[in-house]
Design brief:
Number of helices: 5
Radius of gyration: 21 Å
Structural class: alpha+beta
Strand content: 15-25%
Number of strands: 11
Low-confidence stretches: 36-53
Strand order of the largest sheet: 3-6-7-11-8
Shape: globular
């Protein structure tokens, strides 16, 4: 009857409101205890996609880092000579296991979309969260750097290219000449050195990587263990720029 239906509908509404209040309360409690507990992680093809915040300082600050311009043992520079050819080689490479979508669902500027667009002769999009949506050309040396890293036969994920949200509006990401890498075997000092060497073999002018010291420094500082540089915004990935 009408009375029973109205009562049932009222009960559903009350339960929905109660559930919303409960969920919000749980979120606030977890966020107060540790904000990392409420970070969004979504699995795609077995790889966790983590919601990254601003990357932190990406400037050089005149610091010396190892970069002698030579190609290191176990690293092979690719033969592709155009951005289209290199992009297609990246898509076909088994060691580049996932070029994930932008962590904030800005799919147009995700790393996978950047590479896919360029492989078809188009330009790559930046993120609306960064400098606004605009199209940029991906740096040929950077694409060769991705392939040079893949030649070491260590699977890795390219998490950002032209997309993402970065502290500086002058970030090299927004000009299509920087990448963020997360090696599949995890980050340690030896891996930082290997991937830093791969980027530098392809001409990278700056590599920011995790370090065993100075982890909380907001400014870019020298890391003696890797002979690269580091800061607090780059402890979960390796940043290479050209």
């Amino acid at each position: 009857n009408m009375v029973g239906e109205k009562a049932s509908a009222k009960d559903r509404m009350v339960n929905a409101v109660f559930g919303l209040i409960l969920a919000l309360s749980s979120y606030l409690i977890l966020n107060t205890l540790n904000p990392k507990l409420v970070n969004l992680k979504i699995g795609i093809q077995g790889v966790a996609i983590t919601q990254y915040d601003d990357e932190g300082d990406e400037t050089y600050n005149g610091l010396t880092q190892r970069n002698d311009g030579r190609v290191y043992t176990g690293i092979t520079l690719p033969l592709c000579n155009t951005v289209i050819d290199c992009a297609n080689a990246i898509l076909a490479n088994k060691n580049i296991i996932t070029l994930k979508p932008d962590a904030y669902n800005d799919l147009q500027s995700g790393a996978d979309r950047n590479i896919s667009d360029v492989s078809k002769g188009s330009l790559a999009w930046t993120s609306i969260r960064g400098v606004g949506s605009k199209q940029v050309t991906l740096d040929l040396r950077m694409l060769k750097g991705i392939l040079a890293a893949a030649s070491m036969n260590i699977p890795f994920t390219v998490t950002e290219i032209a997309g993402g949200q970065h502290t500086s509006p002058n970030s090299k990401h927004y000009s299509g000449s920087a990448i963020d890498i997360v090696p599949g075997r995890g980050l340690d000092l030896a891996t930082d050195i290997l991937f830093g060497s791969a980027c530098q073999s392809a001409g990278a002018t700056l590599v920011i990587a995790p370090c065993n010291t100075n982890k909380d420094s907001k400014k870019t500082v020298y890391c003696p263990a890797t002979q690269l540089v580091t800061n607090s915004g780059h402890q979960n990935h390796i940043h290479c720029q050209w």
